[in-house]
Amino acid sequence: MSREPEIIAAYRKAAEAGEMSAQFSLGEAYRLGQKIPRDTTQAVLWLHRAAAQGHSQARRSLDILKTQGVDITPPADQSPNRKMQSLDDLLDSLKPAEGPEGDGGMDAPLPPPEPESDPLDLDGGTVDSESLRASDDPAAWVALGNAYRLGQGVEPDEVEAFTWYEKAAKVGHMQGQYSLGVMYDQGLGTRQNDKEALRWYLAAAKAGDAASQFNLANMIRDGRGCPADAKVAAQWYQKAAAQGEAAALFCLGALYETGRDRDKALDFYRQAAAQGVAEAQFNLGNMLRASDGDAAMDFYTQASEQGLVAAQVNLGLMLQDVDPATATYWLRRAAQSGDAMAMLNLAAMYLEGHGVEKDEIEAHLWLDALADSNPDAKIAACAQQGLAALEKVVGTQGLAESRRRRPLRGLAPKTGGA
Length: 418
Description:
Elements: H1 6-16, H2 20-32, H3 40-52, H4 56-67, H5 88-94, H6 129-134, H7 138-150, H8 158-169, H9 174-186, H10 194-206, H11 210-222, H12 230-242, H13 246-258, H14 262-274, H15 278-288, H16 293-305, H17 309-319, H18 324-336, H19 340-352, H20 360-371, H21 381-405
Helix pairs in contact: 1-2, 2-3, 2-4, 3-4, 7-8, 8-9, 9-10, 10-11, 11-12, 12-13, 13-14, 14-15, 15-16, 16-17, 17-18, 18-19, 19-20, 20-21
């Protein structure tokens, strides 16, 4: 059995002792296959332990795994007791009247409604609230709900917004139904209620609203307000995708990838990627990395240029040997966004002079930033060891220069400490 890399051994020792940042770093190493063979089961285990202690990036990494079709259910000892639902009759009513059944399992992220596709958005227009209030037109009631929700022309009041959306929804207005679904879904102006959100999304979805079809599919896929059913979710995603919802194409790709239908997954991901969905570009990179490295790099580049940190990390790691200068650029971008794996690799490149001029002060800067990335936890053991060694190399003036450079790299100034 080969010896485990020292950095991984250091992460593991600290992680097993309960150190949150080490648990996250070990989970990331397993997730990305960095310095150790990729193992999603171990990644989920350690990322959940870090998330349970409040590590926000761990939750994001788990969401990324979920989009790749990985089961991110917490280990048995962490799983909460959940009450079983028996709503088969409701699930039957959720099926579209027409449309082919989809295959596959679950999971894709559940993004909040985007402003450009959200009928709650007023596009910054002015509002005559008194005229809207006096109108008998349900569209005016939705507009008034928008005004109260966004605070345009009136004081923001989510409860009042809920009241006007509900009034429009109950007379069958499609946008009112969707808007009311959003309010129940997100707990705005009322108590969060999955079943009521499902009910109103379903009403609007049957009337042909694409955003409702997409949100309804998300809820059915995740078993929110009803038993989970990937095939029924796929049917609603297909209806939303047919109306141009790019996120629905991405979710279909994720369903088919989980269902082991590579060709269909690639097809839907490519359609979503062509519409600029960065997560689809990232997943395509992951799927093609082993068989077509050039295509994978191209998709990672597209996602990286949109600011997707996970893609920037993967692209940087792929390029380390073939184009170290470009690798350094992308790892720096990800490191400036707070990614621990990027900080660690960037520090190593400066230490070795790989792709950049050798610079122990710059290496110290990024290891120091890694150590400071979560002030509520001890620094990762590898960063601690590296900093101790580098402090002897760079000396007092080097430490001062490291601090001086931090704001120039987009990092918070160093406060306190040595």
